[in-house]
Amino acid sequence: MLSTLDELIEEFSDLDPQDQSLYLLELGYELPPFPEHARTEENRVHGCQSQVWLITETEGRGQDAPFTIRADSDSNIVRGLIAILQAAYNGRTAREIIDFDIQAVFRSLHLQQHISPQRRNGLRGMVERIQALALSQLKLSTTNDSAHMPGCRSTAVEAHPSNPSGNGATVRMQPTEIAPGNVADAGSAFNAEQLRQQFPVLCQELAGGMRPVFLDSGASAQKPSCVIEKEREVEEQYYANAYRGRYSFGARVDEELESSREKIAAFINAPNTSCLAFTPGTTIGLNMVAFGWGRKHVQKGDEILISLMEHHANFVPWQQLAKERQATLRFIPLTDDGRLDLDRLPEVLNNRTKVVAICGMSNVLGTINPIDEIARQAHAVGACMVVDGAQSVPHLKTDVQGSEIDFLLFSGHKLYGPTGVGVLYGRPERLDEMDPIFFGGHMIERVYSDHSVWAKPPAKFEAGTLPIIQAIALGTAIAWINDTGLARIHRHEQLLLEEATERLLEISGLKIFGPSTEHKGAIISFRIDDLHPEDLAATLDRNGVFTRHGHHCTMPLHDYLGVSATTRVSFGAYNTQDDIRVLCESVQEAVTRQQKSAVRRSSSTR
Ligand code: PLP
Q1: 113 and 29 in one domain?
Q2: Is the pLDDT of residue 159 over 60?
Q3: Any residues with CB less than 8 A from the CB of 281 and at least 6 apart, and which?
Q4: Which range of residues forms the domain containing residue 295?
Q5: Can you say whether the dihedral through the CA atoms of 50, 53, 58, 64 is positive or negative?
Q6: pLDDT digits 0-9 by tens, 183-219
Q7: Any idea what the CATH number is for the domain that residue 579 is in?
Q8: Do 459 and 497 share a domain, yes or no?
Q9: Is 226 tagged catalytic?
Q10: How far is the CA of 283 from the centre of ligand 1 (A)?
Q11: CATH number for position 281
Q12: What is the mean pLDDT of residues 65-88?
């Protein structure tokens, strides 16, 4: 005898996670038989890890006809989930099914916490199929009755690929419930000295009693203790492979990964977690987009638009793609002060442009690019907007939906998180039209001897074992940023930027590349007459000041600037005014030493 929904909720409330799984198994055993003739490809629900077939039956034809869900699976746990869906939906009319808040049922059962993400995807697939069938019944009866169809909670209907008539259409559901970014008030006091205490690496004493002045966060930011502790927690308490085992460690890892995905989704305002794939970092993510999306959509004679300020990660893949596809790589011109010259955008953007790939913030000039405006103009000519967010995401509020970004890539290690993990965000329709470029385990729905069918995103783009610990700890890093307040961090960094700019410019012969501070983020790249960046770096290092010198993976930009190398200073939340003082005094010391040795050299040659 099948339980009612209320009975199920009551039963579940007393069960711990292990017993819930057993109970789901029991429910599965009791599922009524499924008609053999209905085990067809058309009735298969895709996106499930196991095989699932689902049909609906109605008593009568009108809008008031109650529905019965009939389904089966080769997994008994999934059969248990089917029993829950039957308890929730059976006996309801099409309209009631569409209006019914099934998520509230899942919440009362605490289902989301106790089933694996893949099963969750499968469950979502079943719900979408039921809603689609209810919707097509509603449309059918409306047409038959010529009756008025009241407003529907579903936002859009697409024909299912296997059934273009719309019978079995998938309903795009309301975005999943993700809270908006919890960015603390930018105005409240920010105590960087105190915040610094959360970063063990910065609390150490260097030889000679100096404290580290870390000014290379643009390359990799330091990690607060909570991130380091989270990595340790996973290692020591529940480490297991992800999305594989149904034992408790595996389930916990899956849960933690999904929780991290949810934090990331909220952080960049993604519509749901399915449009976020974990990657090894920005570089790999950009290659995935260039060769997974670009190779499919860029044809001979098309154009790809980037800029000279791009990091090689957002330069070389497009250059290679252009070569391969016989397309043309074009560049948005720069203004004299190192901004994108939008007045000249029409010269390079046209209806042959298929991709516009631009960084949110330059890793050398610090320039913050007007992504919203560029995306608007790119979309107006039908181009895809790709944003390299490696530098911008750690410093500026990113809203992928508000800015109409098609693809956004960023790295965990610049976001106070671990190395080896990054994020590929894609607008759902873009991810659907993108091919994977890595193949193997986890990214498939079904492998046949002669072909394979890909899993739905994000699994489609997550072949093999994920950087599990790093991906979980990235969620912790984002929670740390949210707690500290992204807007407060940004404001603090801008104050440091202004102070450092002013003080550095007092040093004779020093030239800063890039626009004035109101157009840039927490990066300063500079050169000093007659003092090579490498020589400067040696003095800075002796004083415990860690900066970077070289071309910073932007050779074309350095060619354009007419220099082979620059010194780059980049700030993070933990930098202080004292760091700026030590930096500027150290730069001055190096300049003075250089001047003295120049004087000595010239007097000895006289
Ligand atoms: N894009 C920009 C603007 C960067 O600054 C960097 C790294 O410095 C990258 C891409 C590459 O990031 P990753 O090395 O994490 O792949």
Answers
A1: yes
A2: no
A3: 411, 412, 413, 419, 420, 421, 422
A4: 274-464
A5: positive
A6: 344 456 789 999 999 999 999 999 989 999 999 999 9
A7: 3.90.1150.10
A8: no
A9: no
A10: 6
A11: 3.40.640.10
A12: 91
